[in-house]
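agent> Task received from the user: take the single chain below, predict its 3D structure, and emit structure tokens. No templates, no multimer pairing.
agent> Plan: (1) validate residues, (2) run structure prediction, (3) serialize to tokens, (4) report one or two observations.
agent> Step 1 OK, no nonstandard residues flagged.
tool_call: predict_structure(input=
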Amino acid sequence: MIKCCFSENTLSLNISELLPTKKLLINYESSEKFLQIKCTLKSIGLIEPILVYIDSVTNEIKILDGHMRIEALKELGETKVECLVSTIYDTYTPNKKVNQVTIIQIQKMLKEAIKAGVPIELLSASLNISVDSLKGRISVLDGISPQVVEILNDKVVPKATFLALKKMVPLRQLECANLMIRFDNFSKNFSHSLLQSSPKETLIESKNTKGNHKTAQRKMIDRLEKEMAHVHVDADKLKENYGSTSLKLTIVISHIKTLLENQALFRWLHKHKPELLNELIKISEIRSLN
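)
tool_result: status=success, residues=290
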């Protein structure tokens, strides 16, 4: 049977009663993420409830996830917030187990929102970006082969890589996308190397194309060689360090298991450092490093 770790309904709680479980960066108020959260809250309200844990002994309400949202709500003058209550004190929140949203997925969501009738001005205000920047995000996949979009859907690919792919014909786009997946490299530099190493007939001619073709071809080969050299160097470093790192981790896990077998230490951690105890137990339960 699967145990539910959260209450079925949210609770409206006083923001002043919520206690943080971590410290935010000193300059968090000027970060892009915080400003975006603040604009979203101001434009359309809270989308995702704050995750909290209510200590049955002290009755303290601890924030497990949503520290920035809470600070943004305070600045906006809010006094109450919708919270989802966790049945266990675990700061390893669900958000950390969710894959990062990719550019392709963002673009699909933006198009769906506009299709549903959401004004583009409201979207730009919610995301704290200009209307022109939002239009650029929406059109980032224009000219990209549907097959390429499909195979890169769950990959974290930078915008510059898609701009490079747009300069290729669909078949070459697909070839390069498969190469990126093979080498697990979606970087701007690698995509530009693939672009410059592409035969002239596989590129979409631009009216502004200038310069000597042989010089450009030499540059692209040099860049591709450098990029591939970096890949091999990184792979060799991982191979060299894997054995010693695995041994060290195995020793650490064994030592943690020994410590947790000490009942006096276990009780002290359970009473004074429950969050640390949770993490140590998780580490001790690791069976394989593969």
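agent> Step 4: summary for the user.
The first strand starts at residue 11 and ends at 14.
agent> Done.
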